[in-house]
Task: structure prediction
Amino acid sequence: MKTLTYFISDLHLGAGYIADHREHERRVVEFLRAIESTACRLYLLGDILDYWWEYRDVVPRGYVRFFGELARLADNGVEIVWFKGNHDIWIFDYLPREIGLRVHDGVMVTEMDGKRFLLEHGDGVGRLPGTFRMLRGLFRCRFAQRLYAAIHPRWTVGFAHAWSSHSRKSGGYVAPDTVCNNLVDFAVEYNRTATDKIDYFIFGHLHVAVDRQLPDGSKVVILGDWISRFSYAVWDGKNIRIESFSAKN
Result:
């Protein structure tokens, strides 16, 4: 019976620093096939693709097997919600129409099995540096998007992957305790002032796997990544747990 809800983030498919793109995609597809018989919902909490720019009539090459497996899950009744991360911001209407999933940008509060969940990629809540807030606003600005779309992909694609690789090499993907605690502080403050308290805060973005119980009984879950941890979370209607996927040889 399909009763489980899965949460996954930070696959970074197509990233320039991943040695074997085909093997990386194969592992993700194997995971999706493994959950097909039990999943009623799948939340993709951002940075699923390392880069994606969707032109009006043209989309980037690659990810065929991954997209095909998502489409099969959707066709079989699995509810799929794709949260925009800071790497896959520019998803517009192609993937929702072709695959049958829903795209969400920002915070989502939803109820499952009598429990309240707050979901977000993790880069848009808590105390954000001014330069980061500026970049988030720029990337979501329609006028800036039109200007970027006018540049030929031969330059934009290479630039985007180079920026991503530089960020990783310079430590941009290593989350210090202060950054992790920023999300915990956000959760504590949210429940302190909320009328309807959240039971589970689910984030991605930081590339660390965290399952932290808060003093008020709620939990903060940070999903890890699929670069080294291959981790995800699963909700069975009563409990949430972080697991690691082991691919078959």
The chain has a mean pLDDT of 87. Residues 175 and 206 are 5 Å apart (CA to CA). DSSP finds seven helices and eleven strands in the chain.
